[in-house]
UniProtKB/TrEMBL annotation:
Region feature Disordered, mapped onto this chain: 1-50
Protein name according to UniProt: Adaptin
Condensin complex subunit 1 C-terminal domain residues: 172-288
Source organism: Halogeometricum borinquense
Domain of life from the UniProt record: Archaea
Lineage: Archaea, Methanobacteriati, Methanobacteriota, Stenosarchaea group, Halobacteria
Short name of any one Pfam family annotated for the protein: Cnd1
Segments of skewed composition (Basic and acidic residues): 18-34
Length: 292
């Protein structure tokens, strides 16, 4: 696995509000990276699962050092037996949760995984891209073509991960994902609630960024307010509130949306206090003759 600097990297910039200290490799001190380095897989005495365990242990105390093992974890996912592959996938997911910026220097390998024909490999790559895109969308954009090509994958986890990449990258670069409008609409109507959830979450990001580029997504989001899955229902309302806050004039069916928001509370939707009322007040300003 290579560890070259990624194309399109913005790694020289500081991350705003970076509570996890997600600095790029160039911003990480030698002392910090050297402490707690995990065992090298070239040591034949170390079994793959044992190596993965050591990476996890290191990640929990020093995720910067554990980042050096990402290439080895990817190789284990690709080449080893099922137990080792499962453990390596879980370790990669943990790294993505603790310090996703560590995926940055492995972007070439991650994009290769995301582009793979094997669903198992594609999912691992897309999941890492989705996690990376939350902190380095310009870098994750290198894998956007791979994500778009898997938006209708039969493998549900792969499809969800691809939708997530579109949402995260699209929030920063909406013009790069305008061709996904139909697929996001389809995702919000999918038979699988987890796919609908991914679609709704992505819709909220895209419509908060540039709604006029996603007309099908705009018209479909209000439909999801009636979803029978509790989590989809909750995120649909939260996504709509975000849409209202950013682009109120472009919200369709304003009266219907106002009526629906009048029946829910901030606590139910897990949004900040006053967000629901603010959204209703904003929409009412566009419907001066409407009386609840």
């Amino acid at each position: 696995m290579s560890r070259d600097s990624p194309p399109g990297s913005n790694s020289g910039l500081e991350t705003v509000g970076d509570e996890q200290k997600n600095r790029s490799v160039e911003q990480t001190s030698d002392e910090e990276r050297a402490t707690g380095i995990v065992a090298e897989t070239s040591d034949e005495s170390v079994e793959p699962t044992e190596f993965v365990d050591s990476v996890v242990e290191t990640a929990l105390t020093n995720p910067v050092a554990a980042g050096d093992a990402i290439g080895d974890l990817l190789a284990i996912v690709r080449d080893c037996d099922e137990d080792a592959r499962v453990a390596a996938k879980e370790a990669l997911d943990l790294m993505g949760l603790l310090r996703p910026v560590e995926f940055e220097v492995w972007i070439g390998d991650i994009v290769q995984f995301a582009s793979a024909d094997r669903d198992e490999l594609s999912f691992v790559g897309l999941r890492a891209l989705a996690q990376l895109s939350a902190v380095r969308p310009a870098v994750a954009k290198n894998g956007l073509d791979a994500a778009i090509s898997r938006l209708q994958a039969q493998h549900v986890p792969t499809r969800r991960a691809a939708i997530a990449v579109v949402g995260e990258v699209g929030e920063a670069f909406p013009e790069a994902v305008t061709q996904t409008d139909r697929q996001i609409m389809t995702a919000m109507r999918d038979a699988n609630p987890s796919v609908r959830l991914a679609g709704v979450m992505t819709a909220g990001k895209l419509l908060g960024a540039e709604p006029n580029q996603f007309p099908r997504t705009v018209s479909t989001l209000p439909e999801t307010l009636d979803d029978d899955d509790e989590e989809v229902w909750e995120y649909a309302h939260a996504a709509l509130i975000h849409f209202v806050r950013e682009h109120p004039s472009q919200v369709p069916e304003k009266r219907h949306v106002i009526e629906r928001l009048a029946t829910v509370s901030d606590e139910e939707l897990s949004v900040r206090e006053g967000a629901t009322k603010d959204a209703m007040t904003t929409l009412l300003s566009y419907e001066p003759g409407f009386d609840l």
